[in-house]
TrEMBL record:
Catalytic activities: hydrogencarbonate + H(+) = CO2 + H2O
Homology family: Belongs to the alpha-carbonic anhydrase family.
InterPro entries in the cross-refs: CA_dom (IPR001148), CA_dom_sf (IPR036398), Carbonic_anhydrase_a-class (IPR023561), Carbonic_anhydrase_a-class_CS (IPR018338)
GO cellular component: plasma membrane
Leader sequence segment: 1-16
Lineage start: Eukaryota, Metazoa, Chordata, Craniata, Vertebrata
Protein name (record): Carbonic anhydrase
Domain of life: Eukaryota
Source organism of this protein record: Hymenochirus boettgeri
GO molecular function: carbonate dehydratase activity; zinc ion binding
Length: 367
């Protein structure tokens, strides 16, 4: 039934693309309009999520993420481009990950960020906290599907690794990308592409190589030398959140197995500022240039989904802490009540004169 639903809405999304619909994060084509033109965007299993205590569950079967071929030689090259929604880096197919029981081949990575006046642009949140930025490294299930186009249409087709970004010290690894932003300031003009007999708009989960160009103009991109992509990741690849979700951009296919690492990586304030201020959503000749900011989707309802976590501490600790606080509150209230009870002294009777009632004979011997 779910596969049938996926197929029906895929047709809807393809038709939306063929009719020339565009999308943005704000304005006339902003996020509120996505479900109208892309059916999945108003459906179930959508991303991103807020990872809060009520939906987390520890899963002892989760293993550290295994990365293969991520240390790419400088003789290899990546393509960095501005697609009007983000900076995208097309990766090489020798990069793979293993999430049992499947192997996934890397396709591309991109970033999400906020605004220089409000540097909170991550898509996923932890306990309501939004981080300054987030990296998504997109892979497709190469054990089952021949390319990412087919994989995107399947419920088990994609695996995305999410890396939260915090402001701290300078990060030389991120300079492999950020130092080239000035070369791709403006949006490329690749408009409509043909893939497997279907017409779709270019969205940055799908690399250029998956399509045959149907209608295009020059795309603003640059070739850069390969580097160790694993250096963009946090040290702990064994601590993460895991759930089933969707693409966070149209057509919002619910085909993603999400892994969002618990620990953020650091970049400097200057590096974040470059990300927030360099790129434009519009092309070079636009009469009304629009800076590329706040390119993140709002949080989605988790529905009946639970998020698995690979780390026990933090989840169990929070529950234990809540229980401990409850016991502490009871003890404090009890102590206060006892103290108040003890502080109520009996009435002082020294100044009260007792008068014998009239007609009553005093006879203390009968008392």
């Amino acid at each position: 039934m779910y596969q049938l639903f996926l197929s029906l809405v895929t047709v809807s999304s393809v038709q939306a693309a063929s009719h020339g619909y565009s999308w943005a994060y704000s304005g006339a084509h902003g996020e509120k309009t996505w479900p109208t033109n892309y059916g999945f965007c108003g459906g179930v299993y959508q991303s991103p999520l807020d990872f809060h205590e009520n939906i987390l569950q520890y899963d002892s079967s989760l293993r550290p993420i295994k990365l293969f071929g991520y240390d790419v030689a400088t003789a290899e090259s990546f393509t960095v481009s501005n697609n009007g929604h983000s900076v995208s880096v097309t990766l090489v197919p020798t990069m793979k990950i293993e999430i049992e029981p499947f192997h996934y081949t890397a396709s591309q990575l991109h970033l999400h960020w906020g605004h220089k006046n409000n540097p909170k642009g991550s898509e996923h949140c932890i306990e309501g906290r939004r981080f300054p930025a987030e990296v998504h490294v997109v892979h497709y299930n190469s054990d089952k599907y021949t390319d990412i186009t087919k994989a995107t249409e399947a419920a088990d087709g994609l695996a995305v690794l999410g890396i939260l970004i915090e402001v701290g010290s300078f990060n030389p690894s991120f300079e492999n990308i950020l130092s080239h932003l000035n070369s791709i300031k403006y949006k490329g003009k690749c408009l409509l592409l043909k893939a497997q007999g279907m017409y779709q708009f270019l969205f940055y989960f799908i690399p250029f190589s998956s399509y045959t160009v149907f209608q295009s103009h020059s795309d603003q991109s640059i070739q850069i030398a390969g580097f160790n992509v694993q250096e963009l990741f946090p040290k702990r690849l064994d601590e993460y959140f895991r759930y089933e979700g969707s693409l966070t951009t149209p057509p919002c296919n619910p085909s993603v197995l999400w892994t969002v690492f618990r620990n953020p990586v650091l970049i400097s304030e200057a590096q974040l500022f470059a990300l927030e201020t360099t790129l434009y959503c519009t092309d070079r000749n636009s009469s009304e240039p629009i800076q590329m900011t706040n390119n993140y989707r709002q949080l989605q309802a988790h529905g009946d989904r639970l998020v698995s976590v690979s780390f026990r501490e933090g989840v169990v600790l929070t529950v234990a802490l809540a229980c401990g606080l409850g016991v502490l509150v009871v003890l404090v209230v009890t102590c206060v009540l006892i103290h108040r009870k003890r502080s109520r002294k009996p009435a002082d009777n020294k100044n009260i004169a007792y008068v014998q009632a009239a007609g009553v004979e005093e006879n203390t011997s009968k008392v």
